[in-house]
Amino acid sequence: MHFSKTYTQILESLPPELQEKRYSLKKLISRVVSELSSLGLSPTVLQELITDNEAGTSKDGDNGTDEGTHSDSSAEGPRIVYELVEHLDRIEPHLKLWVDIPESQSSTDAERGPPDEEPEGEGGSSREMKPTTNVLWSLHQKLQERQNVDPELESLEVPHVSGPGVDVDDVTEITSPAVAKGKQEVVIPLISDTEFFNNLISALEGMSTHMSTVHQEFTKSLKSLSRTISESALPASASPSFHAHSAVSSHPGSIMVSAMQPRQSDLYSWREIFQLYVDTEVFEHVGEVDHGERSVEESEKKLKLFVEQATQRGLADHRNFKSPTSRKAFESFIELNLLILNIKKFSEASAEATRKIIKKHTKRTALPLSYPFTKSSFTSLVSSTSSSALPSHLALFSRLTATSLPRTLVQAIGETLLPIIPHVDDYACLICTSIAFKPIRLDCGHLFCVRCLVKMQKRAQADCPLCRAPVVLSANKSNVDWALLNFMQDWFPLESKEKLKSNDREAAREEMEELGLDPDKACLVM
Questions:
Q1: d(Cα 183, Cα 361) in Å, to the nearest integer?
Q2: Is 79 exposed, middle or buried (0-12, 13-18, 19+ CB in 10 A)?
Q3: Distance separating alpha carbons of residues 324 and 343, to the nearest angstrom
Q4: Domain match, 135 and 215 both
Q5: DSSP per-residue codes, 250-312
Q6: Domain identity same for 303 and 380
Q7: Host domain of residue 73
Q8: How many domains does one find in the chain?
Q9: Residues 276, 314 within the same domain
Q10: Which of 286, 272, 277 is nearest to 334 (CA)?
Q11: What region does 516 belong to: left with phi over 0, alpha with psi -120 to 50, or beta?
């Protein structure tokens, strides 16, 4: 399918505010072609001139000369360069040509007429120059007239051509002095091409401004959602029965944990949702294989999979969510992810549309852009170059091509929303990998659960398993991290209670083994 149709279909699937940001510059490209043709520089002629230019450049390059600064006087035909001149508020494309300054000729030679009047096959040029349509012929004629008047010709006034004919007396610009003996530099401003690029830049600036607004609104919505989830995912300390422990009022061996939670708390439902979201890896793959950002198609499938699994587990309904506020918050969470997906679609489609329109411009006009607008080379350039180092118009293209906004929004979710619910893996003992309840912080600063520390002491293992500092045997109840202990029983009441039970069972088993009893055998009373 043609990309323009694909682009239209993609935009039609997006919200109305994104559909309005489409742009089309095909008509302007046609006007650029018409303007060039009115100058006698049809795509075919331009292609031949550029081919000659590249051949001459290669020849000059062998002699150590700089491209585009001067031309070899022995080169046949005019040399031509297409340039984009950047101003603060616009881009002005122009053609820079180097034409031969004709030698003084007799009036008889001057009256012979233009080269295209010579019969074909009798030495006529393969690129015919008609006096009413070809600016190159007009420039040669004017150079000849000026040379007859002033042999020390220094500059040439360039005609502005807006119609099919060339009026060499309609002066718009004065070029620089001759750049080489027998050559004259001529600059031709391209009016329609200027309009093309300024419209393109204007469209990209409009998209960039809209994306900035979307980013600001997304940040506000994300902060509001974070507050809502915080109010519904209440920890155990929100219950009046919660009791904090301290070294002053508590003994480590007598600590008990209640699994009671506030009546309207959806803490564990949100924890399960966020864990499922992280495991699904909707927008980015974090594994070692295929690490990096997912494509639009992959992200769409992963988001659909996340919603399906959450629905199957009943995470979004009254079976798990006790508060109606939580159910609305979950819908808002899905909407934010859909927004990221839509922005991702829009960014990639618009970046590809920009690349395609530049490619079409180059193909139809034969004007060679010196910047890498192929998909692979452009992406490589943008990823390896800072925006400040790029030309201003290329930096605008990079804002869409790099598709940085979707990644920024995904990172915002990971930095602002997900940390609201602490994850148990962040508070695990590095030895047993379960929650480090009754956490013992050694003098070296590393943390382990009490049971793992007791085992190390029984084995007379004096060194810390992480840093090898001799601090294990000297640890006692003064090494209990009371603040972290209270935090764990506050946010992980179920895990903390289960860890205490597991510790008690393991301690009882060890005592029986020390007495020579087999804990797996039933007790017989004689």
A1: 30
A2: buried
A3: 29
A4: no
A5: --GGG--------TT--HHHHHHHHHHHHHHTSSEE-SSTT-EEPPHHHHHHHHHHHHHHHHH
A6: yes
A7: 36-117+125-196
A8: 3
A9: yes
A10: 277
A11: left
CATH code of the domain in which 483 resides = 3.30.40.10
The DSSP code sequence of 388-448 is GGS-HHHHHHHHHHTTHHHHHHHHHIIIIIGGGS--GGGGB-TTT-SB--SEEE-TTS-EE
Q: Which residues pair with 223 in a beta bridge?
A: none
What residue ranges of the chain have pLDDT lower than 50?
1, 60-75, 105-133, 152-179, 372-373, 378, 380-387, 399-402
Residues 272 and 393 in one domain: yes
Tokens of 478: 């003064």
| pLDDT at residue number 120 | 39
Reading the block at residue 104, the tokens are: 């003084």
Q: Are strands 171-174 and 157-159 parallel, antiparallel or unpaired?
A: antiparallel
- Convert the pLDDT of each residue in 23-70 to its tens digit: 667 788 888 998 888 888 888 888 877 766 555 555 544 444 444 444
Q: Are the CB atoms for 401 and 382 separated by under 8 Å? A: yes
Contact criterion met (CB below 8 Å) for 143 and 155 = no
What is the per-residue pLDDT for 109? 44
Calculate ∠ Cα 407-408-409, nearest 5°: 90
